[in-house]
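Repro:
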Amino acid sequence: MRRRGAEFGNFGSVVMSMKRSGLFLIEIVIVIFFFAVSSAVCMRIFAAAKLTTDRARELDSASLAVQNAAEVYKACGGDMRETARRLGAELLDDGSARQRLDGGLTLTLRHDIELSDEFAAFCSIEVLRGDETITAVSASVFNGISEG
């Protein structure tokens, strides 16, 4: 025969297990929240790293283009027309040259000072993105002897 109140004896253990499961659910929610915040922070870090990598790649490409243009300018003895032809650049009316590069970059070569054909030629070479200068260098040729 069953005792009266015997079913209520298990009620206490049921309540305790409900309290435990409630605490477990709260712990799970806190852990999920922690991982969500951590993943958001990691995604920001990865996005910033990607931007830094892209900028470094662009700077490297621009530096190589400037160095190449300076060497061609020196090899041409300061002749901007021949330099533009060898680079595949457009010779502008003011005597400067411009070349479109990949990624929306523009290579420009400008005579800074030209004393005479037999004495010296000076050129500034820049890579631009819009109005922003990515990198720049100057090159000079003296009596057929190039200086960088």
